Structure formats: C-alpha cells, structure tokens
Amino acid sequence: MLALVGRFAAGEGFDVITRSGGQALLSEWRALKPDVVLLDRNMPDVGGLDILRVIRDADPECQVMLMTADATVESAIEAVKLGALDYLTKPLDFVRLGELLSTVRFGIARRQRLLAADTDLAGRVEFCGMVGRSPVMQELFDFIRRLAPHARTALVAGETGTGKELVARALHKLGPRRDRKFIAFNCSAVVETLFESELFGHTRGAFTGAVEAKAGLFEMADGGTLFLDEIGELPLQVQAKLLRVVEYGEVQRVGASEGKRVDVRAIAATNRQLVEEVAAGRFRQDLYYRLNVVEIALPPLRDRRDDIPCLTAAFIKEFAGRFEKPIAGLSPGAERLLHDAPWPGNIRELRNVLERACMLSEGRMLNEREVLAALGRGQRPGLSPIAARAAAEPDAAEEPVLDRGRIEQALQQVGGNRSAAAKLLGVSRRALYRRLDTFGLR
Amino acid sequence: MTAGDKDDSPLMHEFKNQLSVIVGFCDLLLRDLPEDDPKRADILEMRKAGHTAIALLPKLSERMR
Questions:
Q1: How far does the CA of residue A108 sit from the closest CA of chain B (Å)?
Q2: pLDDT digit string (tens) for A195-214?
Q3: Which of A78, A163, A395, B44 is the most exposed place for a label (fewest CB within 10 A)?
C-alpha cells in the first residue's frame, strides 16, 4: 500500500516519505514537516484518527487525509469533523486522490504567491528602509521628503522600536549632507559624568584620565548629522550646553577656554513625552522648543496593523536569505497571529519574532506553531495526551534505563536495525541514538 | 460492509487491503500506459478480477461465521 501511494504521489510531483506505523510517524513528523499526510485509519500501533488529532492540534496547516478499507458513515464524519481533508476508501480512487493533492499544492502555491505579492508591495512602499503602505506612514514619508532639505534640527518621537533612527537616517540621506557623516549616539548608553566629554570633547588634562585631547561627537559630525537617541536621558547641565551648540553652532571642549564653530544638523529622538518631562522640570523648556521646531511623530505598530503583512514579507525575505532557507510563505494562522499581537516593542519586536521564527523554521512555510514559539508563548493549551507525549518525547525524563548490554542485545535481536531496536526497547529513536553515542556504538 | 467486533474482521480487513494494492497497481499501470497499448486489456482484466474479489468479501465473511 505504501509503495502504491508513494508511486502515485511522486508521479504528482510530491516528495514522498513513507512510514509503516503510526508510532514511527508520530515520533518523526515534526522533523519531516509534511505539507500533506495520508494516513491509514487502521494501524496496529496508533490509529489514524489519533494521529489526525495530534497533527491538527500541533500544525493546523498540515493537510491530513485518511484511508480505510472499511468506511462507515460515522467514521467518515468523525474524521472530517477532526479536520481531515478527506476520507478515502480502498481500493483508492486515484482520480479523487489526484484532485485532493492538486488542492493541497494549489493552496501552497497560493500562499507563496501572496507573500511574493506582499514582498513586491513592500518594495514599492519602502522608503529609506522603512516600510509602510498605511496612509499615516505614506504621509509621514512625504513629510520627511519635504523636510529633509531644510530642517536643521528635528525631534523624532515614538515608542521604542518604531524606527526613530531610520527617520533620522532618512532625513540625512535625503538632505544636502548626504555625503557627509551620520553619527548616532544613544544618550542612555553613557554614564552621566562622560556626557560632556563624549558630546563636546575635552582638552588634554581637563580631568583625571584625560591624557589626550579628544574631539567630541559634534566636532566629528561637523558638516554632517548627529543623531541623539533618547534625548530625555540627558542630564540638565548637558542640556544647557547642547542648546548652545544647536543654537549658535559653537562647541566648547571640556577644559577649553575658547569655543569652536561646528556646522551640525542635530536630530533628537525620544520615546518619552518630552512635554511632560519639561513640566516636571527634567527637561529644559528652551531646548525642547529649539528641538521641536520640526517634530516627527511615529505611530506605534498596533495603530498601523495594515502594514504588518508587507513588513512581515520584507523581514521574511531578509531572514530567509540570511539563513539560506527556502521560506516562501506564511500560513493563514501565522499571519493572523502576527496581525493580532499587541507589539509593545513595535517593529523591532516584529522583526525579532520573525528572525526567531525563520531560524526555527524547517519548511517552505512559516506556520502558526513556529510563530507562536517565536512569540514566546510556547505550546498551545489543550493538547491531547498523545500530542503531549509526542511533544515531550525528546526529553529523557521517562526513558527506561538503558545499559550497554541491553542495547547490544536488542540490536542483535533485530539485525542491527536501529528503529526496530528502539521500538523493542520502548524508547524513541533519538534516545537510542543518544545512548549509542554515549557508548561509542554508533 | 461494516467494521466491527466480528472475529474474522481483522482478517477480512487485511484481505481487502491486499486486494486494494493489486487493484491500485493496475490503476497506476493504466495511467502510465498509452491509450493504444495492447497490454491495457490484460491489466483491465486483472483490475476487474480484483474488484470482483473485493465485492465477494462480505459474502465470504458471512459464510465464515
């Protein structure tokens, strides 16, 4: 029967893997990652309906067909209720089977085309590394395009992970200073005492440890753009000095008596409400007004969910390329998960989740399970006992004790066939391989 | 035909399985061979016999009880 079905499916252009028992399939199907499974309902070890339940639970994208020699209406209904694609009777109707396989193949191709379309769209709605088709983002891109040639200072506001630095880079790239330096500086990454020296430089001997004179970031970025991320973290006295530079274009190194003229475009970014910081006396009002001459507000991802599909497509393309994986699509379930997630970390979080999911993925399609795992929510609740067992299987917790003698004896008994030996010993094949490695028997 | 708790049912089931394999390979051959191949007629006979045997199974099952 296996050879028969295998030949037919191979003729239809599928890569076919056959397993002669339910247990063998249960322990391996996660690694095999099939697009479609054809199961016999009556198998000696585990029944087809049980396997159907496990597969539908763990990977709703995997299509399952059952076949049986004795079809009853009740069993057919049960199978279809459990999510089987169809319930075939033997002798198999190859016309019907051929149609079903075409359906499966068509479904896969459709998902791939969808991703290709989203990737294409992402390419067309991309703007300096930012992707957004939503009206709010398109407006924002337009705003940046018009501002870039003129703005000398700008304040980019947005939650963490919304792409504030990308906006700053876009302003730089589209402005007259595109050929000059762009320096990014994160104000939360520096200890308080070093701010001044970092930003404005110091003279030799200005303070203990200042062995050499050093140019600050403003001097280094002269003629270019300096991006100051998390500006709200800047101590008050540094804010005063920053205002002087921004206002008059004059920096004074720590310990220097004279100022120096620089021509720097300063773009500041914040994820805090600076108005509130000003009200609370933690941020200088004059600096705030100087910076927010131009304010660019980035919406959080949850307010622009329409952009999630094309962002997803762009990231999948990036990571599939980086990890050299043939990922060409995303299952409907996975897409729904991504669309509905709260995304407190915004696009950066989405990107990280997809990076993890692509890393985990072993198929041509990111599925719900992989995305869930990447989202860090782990297993779905309500797994059937068999699924739980299959899921727990790689753990060594409940394995019987295997000493070298028993393994050798079992191997001898089955003529060296490791799968059979594992079955005989009542452990998984993987567990057996592990033991074989331990004993150097492999 | 019903599957149930009859004693001979696993045997009948397996028998039908094997007959299905015979019929199935006939189907595969028929798909592969060109329409005008003279061997088709023979294969069709094998296939027909297989189907007839499958149709006889319920009667056989009854006789064995």
A1: 25
A2: 888 899 998 888 888 888 88
A3: A395
Note which residues in 13-32 of chain B have CB less than 8 A from chain A: 13, 16-17, 19-21, 23-25, 27-28, 31
How far apart are the C-alpha atoms of A360 and A313, rounded to whole Å?
Answer: 17
Q: What CA–CA distance (Å, rounded) separates A275 from A284? A: 10
One CATH from 3.30.70.1070, 3.90.1860.10, 3.40.50.300, 3.30.530.20 for A135-300 = 3.40.50.300
Contacts B48 to A, Cβ<8 Å? none
Please give the Cα distance from B60 to A38 (Å, whole number). 29
With a cut of 90, say whether residue A76 has pLDDT above it. Answer: no
Tokens of A337: 């998960």
The CATH number of the domain covering residues in A394-439? 1.10.10
Profile chain B (65 residues) by mean pLDDT over runs of 10 residues.
52 88 93 92 95 91 80
* Residues above pLDDT 90, as percent of chain B: 57
Out of B9, B16, B25, whose CB is closest to A90?
A: B16
CB atoms closer than 10 angstroms to residue A400: 9
Is the domain spanning A2-117 CATH 3.30.2350.10? The answer is no
Calculate how close chain A gets to B7, using CA atoms only, in Å.
15
- Selecting from B2, B28, B31 the residue whose C-beta is nearest the C-beta of A72 gives B2
Nearest partner of A164 among A138, A140, A180, judged by Cα: A140
